[in-house]
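Progress report, Aim 2. The chain analyzed during this reporting quarter is listed below.
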Amino acid sequence: MEYLWLLAIFILFAYTVEAVTGFGSIVIALSLGALLMPVPELLPILVPLNILMTGWLTSRLYRNIDVQLLLRRIVPLMLTGTLLGYLLLPWLSERWLKPLFGLLILWFSARELWRLNHGGAVHHPKWLTPPLMFSAGITHGLFASGGPLLVYALAGTSLDKARFRATLIAVWFLLNSSLTIAFLLDGRLQSALPAVLMLAPLLPVGVWLGEKLHHRIDEGLFRKLVYGLLMVTGSVLLGAGLLA
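Predicted structure tokens for the chain:
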């Protein structure tokens, strides 16, 4: 597959960042990978890789999952939105997919940079939480990247850090498992499987590198650099789509 070596570098970087900061491996890998390949071709590679990571983490952290929040609120809304996004994907041309994803990445990175520089979370009215969860599902179906909107939807909840992290990881494991089954049924997983098997060994390497870096670098500065990189990437994706 053309550019596979460069995609491997992006994936290694993405999982190293997640091990250091605890966020966004698939968002980073997809935003960088979209500079090389069409989004629909990337998803059947990145989504199965993600369930390897989230499945392992879910098995370790399951005691901290808020099962009631997960099954009664998040999953019904996000799974419905994910199905809608998956069904919409074939109807959206790459010309529109990349700028839409670029906008999502720009919003996410700008919000996180603002939060890091000003402190505290960005809140919203409670009535907005269900629509945000449903919208997070749509972006997950389109880009396997529902995290930015879901984290925003859950802003201000009473979840402590451990329960928040474990519950989010369980969400990604459930939704990405569903997407992987969908890719198997529509035939896209079969063609992507060789790349998935070749890239899978990079996941533990990225986690190992991230663990090493976590204790040696300023995490706040590192986060700002990563969000700055995402802003540049989002701008490139948006510009490439608008100029196409």
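Residues 4-243 form one domain. The chain has a mean pLDDT of 87. These observations will guide the mutagenesis work planned for the next reporting period.
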